[in-house]
Amino acid sequence: MAEMLFHGNLMTGASGSVLLPGTAYLLNFSQDLWLSQFQIQAPTGGKLAFFTEHLPKEFENKLHYLMAADGHDVEPMEEESSMDCADIVDAGIEHVKEKKWAEVIGASFLTIIPSIFGIAVLAASFSKKLSSWGKQALQFAKSGACGVVFAAAIFLLMPESIELVKAGKESESLAAGVWGAAVIGGWFLGVLIDHSCSSSHGCGLRNQLRMWSQKSTADVRPGILKSQRTAAPKIPR
Where are the domains of the chain? Predict the structure, then answer.
């Protein structure tokens, strides 16, 4: 029934309106007030199920999202997102959620590799025989640590701070992956272009810039020397 109502005609519910059970509403929040209130006509002694596009906690600020007429908070008996729900054929079958232990342990191990590598390099630096190896390996440890911070910023912080990143995507994790891959891909593209231009003889933009900078330096130097010569006072003998 809920799916049929979602695909049907939605009624518009403005702030302060009364919502009736068994009806699908498109809620319009108040643009002038910081709080939008909707009254729900609930049956006495009955139970209600709400099917929404967002979890109600997303709109919680200073007040609870569901309150009784006397002002007390009303807590739901069960609250679950459709992203975590599974298709259950029989209502009596309990669905066991799959626990991806291998992915979690593998990701944790990859995250702490730079820290472990740094400790190994620090221990090797105390030995004279391994000091040269430690200095060379420290460069890779710094690169790995930089990669972890870079990935955390791109795949976690930036997608969470920008609202429309997941627009048109099936899930939030997919949107974060596409966002991070696009940013890193653009960075690698710039690196490849830089290396290809520096290694190939056909790219003359960098050479032209260097010639222009050298010419500008050569044009400035005589003027500086000339001004220094004319400004020097003559000392009588």
Answer: 2-59, 102-199
